[in-house]
Amino acid sequence: MIVQYNVDSDMLYIKLADGVSTESEEVAPGVVLDFDASNQVLGIEIEDAGKRIDLSRLEVASLPLAHMTVSRPAHTPT
After folding, report:
1. Model confidence pLDDT, tens digit, residues 35-50
2. Which residues of 45-69 are buried (b: 16+ CB within 10 A; e: fewer)?
């Protein structure tokens, strides 16, 4: 799973699986699910994310993580 945020478009994308999106469905205003040909959800797109959710905090709980990577765009101050 990969969580990506684009500050320029204020778009949050949660990539759940690899694959090619063949269909998308807006399930709520500004929330779009991407599906593959087998109807598996590949990702979740949230428009105007900064207005909808608190992006300053991320909590991960009870996930069986074997590896976690945190990366920042080169232009983001640390």
Report:
1. 999 999 999 999 999 9
2. bbeebeeeeeeeeeeeeeeeeeeee
| Distance in angstroms (rounded) separating the CA atoms of residues 16 and 3 | 9
Q: Is residue 70 part of a domain?
A: no
Q: Considering its fold, how many domains does the chain have in total? A: 1
What is the pTM assigned to this prediction? Answer: 0.83
> Cβ atoms within 10 A of the Cβ of 3, count?
11
**CA–CA dist 31, 26 (Å, integer):** 6
Q: Which domain holds residue 36?
A: 2-52
